[in-house]
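User:
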Amino acid sequence: MPKTLSALALALWLVLGIALAQPTPAGTSIANQASASYVDSAGQPRTTTSNQVITVVQQVYSLTITPNGTQTSPGQTRTALAGATVYFAYTVSNTGNGTDSVALSTLQDSTTDNFDPTGVTIYRDNNCNGALDAGETPVTSLSLARQGASGSSACVVVAATIPGGTPGGQYANLNLVGTSSGGPSDSDNWARATATTAAALTASKSASPSGAVSPGGTITYTIFGQNTGGSAASGVSVSGLGTGILVRDTIPNGLVVSTLPTGSAGAGTVQIVYTTDGSTWQPLASSNLPLTGNGTVAVGMFIGGSGAFFPQGASYTFSFQATVPNGAAQGTSYTNTAAVQYNNGSQNQTQATNSTTSTVGAAYNVAVGPFGFPAAGASGTYTAGGYTITRSGDTQSIASAYNGQTLFFYHTLRNTGNTPDSFTLSVSGAPTGWSCGFRHADHITPISGPVGPIAPGSDFNFDLVCAVPATYTGSTAVNLTVTATSTNDSSKTDTTQDTVAQVVSGYSVDFARLGTGGDGNPANDNPPAASANPGGAVSFPLEVVNTGVNPDSFNLSAPTLPSGWSVAFYPDANCDGAMDSPTPSPITNTGLVNPGVANKRCYIAVVQIPTGTAPGNNPISFRVDSATDADANTPGIQPVSSDVVSTAINVNLVTGFAFDPDRSGTVTSPGTITYTHNLVNTGNAQATVSIPAVTSAYGWTYQLSTDGSTWSASLSGIAVPSGGSVPVYVRVQVPGGQPIGRSESVTLTANATYPGGGAASDTATVTTTIVGGELSLTKSAVSYVGSSSTVRHPSGAEAFPGDHIVYTVVASNIGTGNLTNVRVSDPLPAYTSFVSVSAAVSGFTGAVTVLYSTNGTSWNATAPSSLPAGSSLYVGVDTDGNGTIDSNDTMPPGASLTLTLRVQVQ
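Assistant: Predicted structure:
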């Protein structure tokens, strides 16, 4: 990253306060996808989803070095004899959101001090004890992980030697400078080395473990030092104890000391002591424990002695253990600095140790279970997707399900770690053909990518949704295992099991003559036989009853039909057994039929008898097959989702000519529909047929064909053999811009001539009606530098922590029919925080109001000012003024609703 970009991103990051929390790691992908629900112009509920938008978080560079200090007020001071080496302890931290390399160097003071130390060297302080230990090597740079990850901080010591012969009291200033590979630096870390001939006790401190500590873990603090001065040290007066050297350490707030500290010294008498008020000390016994840090309580080691009793080279060590509370949140820091109090021969001295900081590490964990019971122990039932779900322990089950249906299992996920975390969801165990995915708790919005961040101890509700294919049945239980995995620690997972005990067929049909469908008596299903003339048509009123549990559509056919005969099935809207007027278009599929006798569909099967058919009895059968159940159309298999009725037609010979049937249908604008007719010659000689062109009153195009591939405005020279028929296809092309509901009927005339001068004619009518309605949903994103108007990336493909992303979702009615109950939803993406939302409309007439919701149920004209993590935002247009979004709210053709959601990258 260029230095200027890093500096700008860092400045905005700090201004926005992002540095106070863990930033989103560099390289994280923020995925977002909107969805919408509506009712189309045919009254059918629909859902649709937008395209997915991906934003990749970029790296921000930032570092800190502590302790800070200036030349006049250094952050740490070390005193020693001329010729001795002193050690300055520092902590270097990466406060950026990606791995960084920090270059280290030192700077000597050339203006305000007395001398320059020699042999200045930077060492990696592996155990962070502020001292140079065997095996610790010089460094010039550090590789540090991103903030919040293990290895984001490191300790170093800077060794510097006071030149021999330096007079007592003179000092030197030394600075440690760190520079990030991305440009930022930290250079206010001055320290001071002072030469002395008096007694000088050093004080260093270590904390073990030196890195992160777990909730409930123990920190061992060790303070140690040595008299590196030019004479023996004396004691100071300590209230409650007498005269001696006091090593003291205030217990960090919240930590608990439960065992007696230990210590030793190279001279004097050692006593373990404590204070509760910070000034009066007394011996510490087991009966005084535990001690809880509150900012005042301290433990220590008193080295008793008289006069100058602690000689040159004498050393001391003091150690105690402190326990971290079990519920400590990630990022909780326990900073601790100890001190040693002594007299250098002329005056009392207090030498502070280096500071140690023990930070509670991120303890990632997750629990997922049945709805309302993320940690197992579930019981009771609830209803989802029309099924009763039984919860038990860490499982939930459906006793029996039907194929062809969508199953819902509700779940609750809980962040059982000590830090905000995001989680990925996965499912296994679904049989081949099952389609399983996850949705938000609104049961509509799909979950894209991880969910969260979710606060420690907080819950997130979601659905597992599985579509069972119509081809699947079985008595073997289906066990679906839902797994939640921490995005920060993939080893932290939890599972819960959803079981479907068995899947039975949800498809069944009863096909019968009019008035007997669904009565449970197959003996009366067959239509009575009929008589007809050659070239004529016979109508059989029939009805279809969906006796399954799933909505289904059925294919209509006539498996038993004499050669050359044809059949067409016409809807009988009022189920009176008579052909409706105008004649509807024939169909081969029933369309969607809901279960139950009350939802039966009636049809008239019109059998066309070829001219010249010999008199006699001709068996006929009609069949319905489920269009969903794959077995229904498999040869040799007779599933329950298929049914057949049988009858017969007694035929006599007659002559004649027919152009049948009349047709009607619906089409969108623009759109195309093709009708099929038959030229039937029932005479005793070949007929030659012509059909002239027709003219549309609305500029529609009508084309004719006998083979379905070659089209023209008119036809001529069509040879129809005696007793034979020829299909005629009529294609209607409707241009764009036609209003919904417009209908046009045209009459086509077929003129037939016979050898010897005979002639005949017949007509067929086609009626076409405009219908339509469709919702288009598109999504785009733009990322901005912080909260400014400066564009970071025009497609939102990149962003930094602290940047804003503006999502724009446009829902448009691109059809020609009204849509109702239109609701657009957009989830708050993981790794972001809600900033604002707004919406705008166009193409509506009259007074309309944009309404907002955060749960899809309660609506308000005021846009929400906040949105919890993992939630979705909903918008709709209230066109009837009743303050909610329902089936009375209409989106007309050409109208659009635009949702604008602004979020901030964490």
